[in-house]
Amino acid sequence: MNDTLSEVKDLIASTFSIPRESVADNSSGQTIEQWDSVGHINLVMAVEQKFGVSFTMDEIVHLRDVGAICRAVTEKAGKPTSA
Amino acid sequence: MFHWAFVSNSTVAPLVPRLKKELSARKLECKFHITEHGNLAAQVFQANSDLYRFKPDLTVIYLDLAQIRSGLEHSLALEKPEVRESVVAETVAHVAEVIKAIRTRNQGTILVNTFTVLPRTALGIGMDPVYRRAIRQINQRIYETASDLPQCHVYDLESLWAEAGFQAYDRRFEFMAQFPFGPTMQQLLVTEWMRYFRALQGLSRKCVVLDLDNTLWGGILGEDGADGIRIGDTPAGRPYLRFQQALKALSKRGVLLAINSKNNLTDVLPILRDHPEMVLRESDFAAMQVNWDDKATNLSRLSKDLNIGLGHMVFLDDSASERGWVRERLPEVLVPEMPREASGYLDVLNHCELDTLTVTAEDLKRAKMYWEEKQRRELQAEAPSFEQFLEKLNLSVKVELLRPELLDRATQLCQRTNQFNLTTRRHSADHLKRVAESPNSAVLLMNAADRFGDYGWSGLAIVEAREQTLFVESFLMSCRVMGKNAEFAFLSGVLQWAKQKQCLQIRGQFIPTAKNAPCKDFLARCGFQANGSNGEQWFGAEIANLPLPRVDYIDLAVDLVTKS
Lengths: 83, 564
Fold this sequence. Notes:
The complex is a heterodimer of chains A (83) and B (564). With 83 residues, chain A is mainly α. Chain A is 55% helix and 0% strand. By secondary structure, chain B is an alpha/beta fold. Chain B has helices at residues 16-25, 40-44, 50-53, 65-68, 72-75, 81-105, 128-147, 157-164, 171-177, 183-200, 221-224, 238-252, 265-274, 295-306, 320-329, 345-348, 361-382, 386-393, 407-416, 429-437, 486-500, 522-525; strands at residues 2-8, 30-35, 58-62, 109-113, 152-155, 207-210, 256-262, 285-291, 313-316, 396-401, 420-421, 441-450, 453-466, 469-477, 505-510, 529-530, 537-542, 555-559. In chain B, the strands form three sheets. In chain B, strands 10, 11, 12, 13, 14, 15, 16, 17 and 18 form a nine-stranded mixed sheet that branches. A five-stranded parallel sheet of chain B has the order 2-1-3-4-5, sandwiched between helices. In chain B, helix 1 links the parallel strand 1 (2-8) and strand 2 (30-35). In chain B, helix 1 crosses helix 10, helix 6 runs parallel beside helix 7 (128-147) and helix 17 packs across helix 18. Chain B is globular. The A-B interface holds A 15-17, 37-39, 41-42, 45-46, 49, 55-57, 60-61 and B 11, 13-14, 17-18, 20-21, 170, 172-173, 175-177, 179, 182-183, 186.
């Protein structure tokens, strides 16, 4: 498992106070109850703080699942991805 | 369980998970209710709404100025003065309406925000002062509105922004969700609300325990000597001087100070007594542990000496290893990180959970009373016997009838006294007044003082004369005068009233509670015979033959002339 994916899943678990095991690689606002519009604000802020990145409003709207967040973080922070 | 309500015309919900984490980290169970956006009016202005049925203990209001009137930062400064004034007045009226609606329908505490003052706007230096002055005028009037209402407090967004730095203002989330608070500001808001919560719940800390070397002064006394330590108005001494000044102010406000230091007391006392630059003196410390024992043990001793739980103590020490040790051994004690340089000590005091909402006369006297008590304990330790200690104490006791200006104190004594309280009846002010006015009953109060200080009005008896018998309905004494035999002097004062009423017999009752064991033998020790039945502990005696313990060393003055 690559580092970014694991760290993003950690953040989702801690932001929403849910068990780490309940966060899957394809979790999203559809599958996690706490990931509503309020939760989204806190999650985006937590991701920005953790990775030292800043998203535009347009990007924020599209960060709706684990994969989208990982791709955006990798792109912004210049971290290499590995499959 | 404590109930938090949030009332906002905008967005406040993203702050709540952070608050919940803070509370659950401290194992504090609470319930929450959130009203946001368009729901505000329906919840706030209807008496039977979910908000009021929830019965909040604390209602946190967050009003966003933009939801009341948008764009003020660009319009206000360009308006005519009279228009500007009416905008200010209408905005204040709107806020006041919300607060007052909640105040009339809920008994809990209310917390309301002031509005954010943007540090600058597009209009620039010529216009910005006009805008700022108008918003600050609104804020000023919010303060005034709140201070006119009971249990209503203001949290100041402008100060919180100053602390967070305005880079924490997040325009993106302001535009997307009316939520401008970045993570730093979120934490400050939650911390601010927690301060009120702690103060309301009696969870604030009461005692600051201090290390000495490199904490209260610079250097190590044992090595640098009295002339070598750094304290005073020099660059190296100033951080400690200012730190001590802040501690002194806290002490005046009712926070107790104590010392926990690895040093020789014989080295330390001369500094506390005579060092010309010290701000804090021996009498500023309610207790001291100056020895070579470990600091957790010393903290436990201080907790016992002062009768203050470890959960109400803060420990400040420059040494990371001492802090670590205490944190591990006594997790209830708050042990803040200390900055590596003393210049930062002052700011640590802002985060010691010492908040109180109001300051009472009792708070202002507290440090003095603890100091007096400490001297008494020392005298007692020196005296060869308890009797000899009492003889040296020069205790004087006054017994007088209740008079109107003492009614508040008398009521407080009935409500608060637990340990030395024969019947634990919680009489109201009204009841006391009626008893005092009736010809065959009386409320007698005791005042006590000794060579170290004044205990104030600290004992109360309610008696009634019926058919030549004196019935003692209540007899109680504040714990601060316990252990000095003042109760025997007080009772002999009460007997003088009984004699005035031609009573021959006296009867009293002991009603056991979880807390009043300290006085269970009092009537027997005074020579009363137990004659109760069915578990009721009644006691009686003939007044003429009552073998009261002799307390000649107490100077007793009884004044039974009614004053009105």
